[in-house]
Amino acid sequence: MSTNTNTAGQTKNKTKVRMMAQIGMLSAIAVVLMLFEIPLPFAPSFYEIDFSEVPVLVGCFAMGPLAGAAIEFVKIILNLAINGTMTAGVGEAANFLIGCAFVIPAGIIYKKMHNRKGAIVGMISGTLIMTLMGCFLNAYILLPTYAKAFQMPMEALVGMGTAVNSYITSLFTFVVFAIVPFNLLKGILVSLIVLLIYKKISPVLHMK
């Protein structure tokens, strides 16, 4: 009996160690991907798409929503340590919440519907929730924080949006014509990439 207990304990410890290693590995990949940003024609230059949520979402599907949140957290902390912050950590906290708003709903739905349909439904739901969260946090936290950090009025930030997108004339239109399409596009692109690669790499993460 004690041998079985010891074996079960060792297996559990190995699983924890493997999960921690995978979280660290996926977080490191996510940080590297954050360095490759793509500017968008409809938004100011400080809104650029990166694909750092790809390894986060992969980890979320492979190990569960809590693991996904852990990867997102480690990614933000590592990026903060490497690149620092211009918003006293407020921007990084908001980015963590926006990222979690995407991967956690997707992970929860996929855990309940563990098939391709569940993955698709999860990613669509996560994209929509991330878009809503992004609108709220950008309008009420991120943009005001950036304006304060750079000592400029909100109108100046809106003006930066107007310079690249004539539909942006106020904070509301900034959200509608820059932040909404930004988050929708990011969610769609990340989802498509994960949909293409997950089946090929999941056996590695599950040690199969």
3D architecture notes:
This protein has helices at 2-34, 53-63, 65-83, 90-112, 116-149, 154-164, 171-205; strands at residues 38-39, 48-49. By secondary structure, the chain is an all-alpha fold. It has a two-stranded antiparallel sheet with strand order 1-2. β1 and β2 form a beta hairpin. It is globular, with a radius of gyration of 19 Å. It starts with a helix and ends with a helix. The mean pLDDT is 89.
What is the structure about, briefly put?
By secondary structure, the chain is an all-alpha fold. It contains 7 helices and 2 strands, in the order αββαααααα. It starts with a helix and ends with a helix.
Shape: globular
Q: Profile the largest sheet.
A: 2 strands, antiparallel
Residue share in β-strands: under 5%
Category by helix and strand content: mainly alpha
- The main sheet orders its strands as 1-2
The topology string of helices and strands comes to HEEHHHHHH
Helix content: over 70%
* Separation, N- and C-terminal Cα atoms: 28 Å
**How many extended strands?**
2
Mean residue pLDDT:
89
Low-confidence stretches: none
Please tag this protein with its features.
208 residues; 2 strands; 7 helices; mainly alpha
Give me the secondary-structure topology.
Layout: H1 2-34, E1 38-39, E2 48-49, H2 53-63, H3 65-83, H4 90-112, H5 116-149, H6 154-164, H7 171-205
Antiparallel strand pairs: 1-2
Helix pairs in contact: 1-2, 1-3, 2-3, 2-4, 2-7, 3-4, 4-5, 5-7
